[in-house]
Amino acid sequence: MVESPAFGAAVRQCVVNAVVPAAKVPEERSFAMRSLRVVAGIAAVSLVLAGCGGDDDDGAAPGGGTGGEFSVYVCEPEHLVPQNTNETCGAEVLGALFTSLVDYDVGTNEVRIGAGTASSVESDDQRVWTIKLKEGWTFHNGEPANAAAYARGWNAGAYGPNAYGNAYFFENIAGYDDLQVPTDAPAGTKPAATEMSGIEVVDEWTLRVTLKDAFSQFPVTLGYTAFYPLPEAYTGDPDAFEERPIGTGPFQMDGSWQHNQQIRVQRYDNYAGTAAKADAITFRIYSNVNTGYNDLLGGNLDIMDSLPPERLGDARAQFGDRLIERASSNFTYVGFPLYDERFADVRVRRAISMAIDRQAIIDAIFNGAYTPAGSLVSPVVAGSRDNACGQWCTYRPEEARQLLTEAGGWRGSLVLWFNSGSGHEKWMEAVSNQLRSNLGISSISFKSLEFAEYLELLDQEKVTGPFRLGWVMDYPSPQNYLQPIYSTTGSSNNFGYSNEQVDQLLARGNAAETVEAGIELYQQAEDLVLADLPNVPMWFGKVQGAHSNGVSNVAIDAFTRIRLAEVTVNQ
């Protein structure tokens, strides 16, 4: 998932005040299957049936929690249809409005089935999967959140004309291709089908999913927003649904999305899981992270999951034990627009990478809070390697200048791109100073835009220089750090990068007999990508958030999402 505009990200956890290890934690799940172990952190799976979103009473008053309301910092979401939401600000809001099929252990990242809306996810061959849903779950308008609702959501996500950003999550389901319009078809051509043949509603609470190929990690993916259900009301008016989503979660919309201002939600009293503690939440939308931080300091905002990096020292003094710092799955990189011939020579890309002193920037600007990235996969995920990138991600300014000279040098200006208002200005300036000093590129300028416009230009391949982006895992697997970003058809491949060998290795890793067996193949694919270097790995981040005295039990998980239902308003 493309991370939010801010440098850091926040994640929510079921166990309040539990320390999140070095990983971006999805929610807990557990599942049974023949001879198969699947782990969020690629560790052994634990069949834990209880967890957040379960049916047990946690002491809250019947039909409600402890009351009160609080406010949360977010940026303007790009979308609020789950199948089209692949950035963290939209996902934060949807986390309040929906309950996922499975959850992930906050401490270990292990998949837990039973903590979400699925009671079991089983397969005998890792290709045909049977999902048993818990009965009694409903949407906020009273519609049952049954197998048909999940089929509706997944088919909408896969339907080509919708052009939803999370469509790639359904590519491995049989019949996906029939929902796409051939690239050479005349304008106005519709797909051959509107429903995937691999999605079968067996009965009201049972869904059978047939994949094109065996995919051992399929259960690991099911906590992601793309796999949320959709009510019949979505089909009638998708645009209206986007403005006022109808979900299955502990909170429901209170009015419509007030763009660039706020989104309000209130507790859903007929929620089938454990009731939220607070009565309501206001997601306050900011275009500048420092404005949000000032509101937090002034008591006008309750929770912020991503603090301005340059103010972390101040935040430690200001907030004390109300500061939340823990490892996350956040990965920051600087990408190259390979569709621009100036970056076609890999020596140019390697030179830029070797000319950047990542540790010096971290020490000077981020108070040493982050870790220089020597790979593409976060250390919180099993299968990550400390220095897979080797010399190409090591600060070697003399070798960098020599490489650039061998490539013919750099002529003209260099434009560095980043999204505005989110604390990236200082470190991008530091990068520019190092490139001037170490590579002799004298003319360097900056282009910064609001996040939504920035993403749109990236998608349209209209960015003209190295660009800042980040990634927060959708689920804890090396595959999630590689396929969406570096495969030829990856939804977040903003470089124009394509390597047939990488695509083949990713496909083989996906079809491996077990998750563990796929790791070696994913690592081989990562080695090829690092040799091509379509982007410069910069650093792996931490959750760095804080909250006011008005709330307690605030937990942010490695997915950089707040466990909103657990937050208690101090009365």
From TrEMBL:
<feature type="domain" description="Solute-binding protein family 5">
    <location>
        <begin position="117"/>
        <end position="492"/>
    </location>
</feature>
<dbReference type="GO" id="GO:0043190">
    <property type="term" value="C:ATP-binding cassette (ABC) transporter complex"/>
</dbReference>
<dbReference type="InterPro" id="IPR000914">
    <property type="entry name" value="SBP_5_dom"/>
</dbReference>
<dbReference type="InterPro" id="IPR039424">
    <property type="entry name" value="SBP_5"/>
</dbReference>
<protein>
    <submittedName>
        <fullName>Oligopeptide transport system substrate-binding protein</fullName>
    </submittedName>
</protein>
<dbReference type="Pfam" id="PF00496">
    <property type="entry name" value="SBP_bac_5"/>
</dbReference>
<dbReference type="GO" id="GO:0042597">
    <property type="term" value="C:periplasmic space"/>
</dbReference>
<dbReference type="GO" id="GO:0015833">
    <property type="term" value="P:peptide transport"/>
</dbReference>
<dbReference type="GO" id="GO:1904680">
    <property type="term" value="F:peptide transmembrane transporter activity"/>
</dbReference>
<dbReference type="InterPro" id="IPR030678">
    <property type="entry name" value="Peptide/Ni-bd"/>
</dbReference>
